[in-house]
Batch of 3 targets.
Target 1
Amino acid sequence: MSTLTPGPIPADAPGPTPSVAAEPLRFDTKIAVLLRADLAPWQRLNVTAFLVSGLGATLPEVVGEPYEDADGTRYLPMFRQPVLVFEGEKETLRAAHGRALRRALPCAVFTADLFATGNDRDNRAAVRAVPTADLDLVGLAVYGPRNAVDKVLKGARMHP
């Protein structure tokens, strides 16, 4: 993994490859987050951020190139495609989780127990302590072929 240098970049440093302006890019994959509808606004933001970090850290193909502004200042890369956010009831999350596991799609989970922990070690221990069928899911992130992710999210609605 390369490191990014803050501040101006020397003129001879390689920059991002210019993109060719053509037709709009349509992805054959989808990144989606499903949130439980009863979460407070701060919880929705927190859960979404945690969930997508798992995808970005594990699946290098979802991360694009670093950004650079007109002054040559470089910025960290982001996902190469949109993240769609959905919401649903507790039962919708449970069903989506089961479908994601059956399809072996990469997914990240956030359980209600994680709101009471304060660090990564305790977060992992809280999830590890509960059998799959009993996880109190408040969020799920999933990545995969568009069709498969759509089927996983059956019954969910776009986040308002």
Target 2
Amino acid sequence: MYWRKFVLNNGLHLSFAVALVATMGSLYLSEILRYEPCKLCWIQRIFMYPMVVLFAVATVRKDYKVYTYALPLAIGGGLFSIYHYSIQKIPFLQDSAASCGLVPCNTDALDWFGFITIPLLALIAFIIIAVLQWLIRKAQ
């Protein structure tokens, strides 16, 4: 049961690090590089930003029950990321996203290798956090 000890010793720290990197990355893109986020990006931020504070407090207090709050946030944010990524990459859905707001949701300023976009990076962060929180729940 080595994985249980590893998850209990490092799961909160890793979750905090992932949430912090995702938050700092989104702030870097919008505040330094001046990429204006679309409405769906804002919604994903609403799910990600509180997790930095949640995991910081949980790490200091060694509160392993934080998954009761963080897991729903990670799943909800992940669902919005999937929808946002689908709008960008599935041609059938791209037409409906033009009315997303001032910044259309079907375009992305960051597009590496033709498939890595900002919503995909957010989705990866949400998945990592959700898996870590689920493992913490199982390890207790």
Target 3
Amino acid sequence: MSSIALVTLVVRDYDEALAFYIDALGFDLVEDTGRGDGSRWVVVRPAGSPAGTGLLLARAADGDQESRVGAQTGGRVGFFLHTDDFARDHARMTAAGVRFLEEPRHEPYGSVAVFEDLYGNRWDLLQPAA
């Protein structure tokens, strides 16, 4: 096995999730295919990213899954979005309404700030140190 292709992110609604990931984060829509039962196979990936790991946006199918929307990692940062220009992407995301939980920090491993997606999942925007 050579890579992780997809990571599932449970969402409340496909279209609101797509609006956030495409419009606010700048992701590309890779696939959006109906599955015949009302569910869809929806994959997004950071814009311009090679065929690396993508997110499978999976609508919660029942109350148990719905209760986990936004809390899939127990309140910890669970997702890491790398950038080659932290200041540019932080400014663009802030202008698009992304909620950052802290001011940017400059750590030995790079420039970083924690933000929340539309459901409250925590992400790092990270420009790794050279």
